[in-house]
Amino acid sequence: MQPRAYGYALTISARKPDTLAQTATALGAKGYEVVDQAANVKDEDALKALVELYRERYGHLDVLVNDAGVGIGATPGEHETKKVDMQLDVNVRSIILMYRECLDLLKAAGAQFGKAVVVSLASIAGKGASALAVGLFGDERRKLT
């Protein structure tokens, strides 16, 4: 069943505008209500603008899904500070900032509907991990893109 059947609309974001637009178009063709906004999750102002776009349109947030992730493969002696900083910015800092910026919207949904949900995923793991649950999520995620 589609999210819209449950009353949900989708606001999606990604770093690459072209890929984001293609995904939004594909989801829209399947009947999903989709708003897309390109943003780099490392950029605090871009995250704030994304949340503000959502706030103006909907006023509450039922489900926040954090799905940005980056993996930097290196041995312990080869880790470059710049790449470690990027990985922490995307995989940890952006989740904290999104949660902070969305907190009032989540509380509004909780007050109106009795609950709100935050889900944080690892997109890199979803593409190739061998765990059954993550693998199933990855399969479903690939169908959407």
Topology:
Elements: E1 10-12, H1 17-29, E2 34-36, H2 44-58, E3 63-66, H3 81-113, E4 117-120, H4 123-128, H5 132-144
Parallel strand pairs: 1-2, 3-4
Helix pairs in contact: 2-3
Total helices: the number is 5
**Class from helix and strand fractions:** mainly alpha
Distance between the termini: 17 Å
Largest sheet: 2 strands, parallel
Which spans of ≥5 residues are poorly predicted at pLDDT below 50? 128-145
Name the CATH homologous superfamily: NAD(P)-binding Rossmann-like Domain
Order of helices and strands: EHEHEHEHH
Which CATH C-level class is it?
Alpha Beta
On the 0-100 scale, what is the average pLDDT?
82
Main β-sheet, spatial strand arrangement: 1-2
| Strand content range | 5-15%
Fraction of residues in H or I helices:
55-70%
The total number of structural domains is: 1
- Can you name the CATH architecture? 3-Layer(aba) Sandwich
Instruction: State the CATH topology.
Output: Rossmann fold
What value does the Rg take, in angstroms? 16 Å
Secondary structure: number of strands:
4
Can you give a write-up of this model?
This protein is mainly alpha-helical. The chain has one domain: 3-Layer(aba) Sandwich (Rossmann fold). It contains five helices and four strands. The strands form two sheets. The chain has a two-stranded parallel sheet with strand order 1-2. A two-stranded parallel sheet has the order 3-4. Helix 3 links the parallel strand 3 and strand 4. The protein is globular.
